[in-house]
Amino acid sequence: MKLIHIENLDIQEFFDTPPPYAILSHTWEKDEVTFHDVNQKQVDGKAGWIKITSFCKIVNEYLLDPVKYVWVDTCCIDKSSSEELSEGINSMFRYYQEAVSCFVYLADVVYSDPSKPVDLSFERSRWFTRGWTLQELIAPTDLIFFDKGWQRIETKVNLASRIYTATNVDEITLISGDWSGASIARRMSWASTRETTRLEDIAYCLLGLFNVHMPLLYGEGSRAFIRLQEEILRQTDDYSLFAWDASQAEENIAHIGVLATHPRFFKDSGSIEAYPVAGPISISNLGIHARLSFKKNATGQTLVHLPCGFAGDVDSVVVLGLNLFQAEPVILSRARSKFRVSSTSEILRLDHHSEFYLLRTSRAVQSMVSKCCLTYSYIRKDYDRFIPVRLHPRQMWASNESTRSMTLTLPADGDRMFKAAAVFWCAAFEGCFAVI
Asked: Which ranges carry the DUF8212 domain (predicted)?
């Protein structure tokens, strides 16, 4: 772990237990300094360096027992090393958790009159909208907010109600510092309105919140958030992970998986809590294997209840609508609808308990690009005639009498079996034959 010495401002590395340190939380602006900038003394005049030196001075002023070291994310991780970057991101929650104190710098807030409460610019600060600052809010035990000029605003505990308004993180979690009892859905809801510069970071910034460690693969896009959920499932049987709003799924999705592609789909899931009695969940190449109560509705849709419901309402249960994706073995996908909450009495009316697979990831509408060509010839040119009378799937076949060919357009993905058939009428023997 790399730390900055408050007095000489040099970066020192500690391989075992680090000394006590304070930590900075902020939003990145222009002209931030990197590890190499500090190491090579190329920091003079940079706004990011002025912020760091001011932070070091404030630490000495406000801590009753001043520390000698501080940690700042811009320059205490050598981002040119992929190994160090991965270790730093996977350890960042712990860095904030183990800090003596966390100083939050709000660059867009001016607290001009300390005799009065800070105005609404506090809740509107950009700091409350960024993905990385969620863990920086929750992890530290002692957290103090400062304005643009390093004027002290107040502590996290004393501003808990206003922070709840800005973030939807409940006051109990903010005051106690214990988020372990919050369901997966509730924790996801905390990140639902937050943004990151890179798409993958919306998953990586949540690793510590779910006690997950996984490699960083920049370039994988939304697959990073899928991997995060898969790792969560390997550690928990909290079915609230599936309680998200599928009605907002992308329009090009033909079959919706039970794993969301972004935390924004959990925006309305903050009140969902998991029930302690739940069946095991396992992941395989077929999908997510689960045993759940279910019934069929009038349209043939499968309704399953999840062992979770509204917080404080023990008679509530989350119900998901599922569609058949594959018949053998049974694989179900999410219906394009929001989850609903019903009463536990409905469980008693459910027809069956069964084991089945849930489609993990969504499948887009397939583009038709691959083609298969069937050609034929006549033995007796004037007598033999082949006439296509039945084609399946009809819209995927095209015939050309002049070239004596039939063209079948195939799904672009070749990873599954595809069935097609063509039935011809043969005038020579007054009968039909089929090609399957």
From this structure: 223-247
